[in-house]
Amino acid sequence: xxxxxxxxxxxxxxxxxxxxxxxxxxxxxxxxxxxxxxxxxxxxxxxxxxxxxxxxxxxxxxxxxxxxxxxxxxxxxxxxxxxxxxxxxxxxxxxxxxxxxxxxxxxxxxxxxxxxxxxxxxxx
Amino acid sequence: xxxxxxxxxxxxxxxxxxxxxxxxxxxxxxxxxxxxxxxxxxxxxxxxxxxxxxxxxxxxxxxxxxxxxxxxxxxxxxxxxxxxxxxxxxxxxxxxxxxxxxxxxxx
Lengths: 124, 107
Known about the structure:
The structure holds two protein chains of two kinds.
Chain A: E1 2-7, E2 11-12, E3 18-26, E4 35-41, E5 48-53, E6 59-61, E7 69-74, E8 79-84, E9 93-103, E10 108-114, E11 118-122
Parallel strand pairs in A: 2-11
Antiparallel strand pairs in A: 1-3, 3-8, 4-5, 4-9, 5-6, 7-8, 9-10, 9-11
Chain B: E1 4-7, E2 10-13, E3 19-25, E4 33-38, E5 45-49, E6 53-54, E7 62-67, E8 70-75, E9 85-90, E10 97-98, E11 102-106
Parallel strand pairs in B: 2-11
Antiparallel strand pairs in B: 1-3, 3-8, 4-5, 4-9, 5-6, 7-8, 9-10, 9-11
């Protein structure tokens, strides 16, 4: 069983950097058992996958955000992090973190445990 | 990017109804399709992965079917806790993409 919780500032000024933390609780396993992913949902819009990171630092980012996104992980603190630079009003969204699992049998990734989300508003 | 189109965008139903939601992909792939349930303010919940595999702990009233480009999520007998928004997601090709959502409302 995995529990994740997002935390960070709810208000960020335009052109500044959005920084979020996801704190993970994993029962009977470790952070190394999963990939760790970020998703966002702007108000009134659909879900957008931002990217994922693995415990070894390997990652994959959505090309639409790649130039502004950095993810990192600290397994000793059971946390992973999202940094999004040069934010604008278009980055206002609920940001979710989630565990991402790989099924070797089905050969598919899926997001099995999500947080409740953190609303981040970009405004001066 | 693979575009995922869900239909309908919303529907009204009653407790006990059978409900089917469709997701169509802009490219063909076999079974790399997941379904989620989301109530605003709560954590999204994985229902089905690999098109038809029920996630552990999820009620058997949920089922998934289909193969690219068309997939279905069926709720055999709608329960009060099922009134929510449902999203499909492809993880066949990065970037992973989601459908726009189907809101299931009380009739």
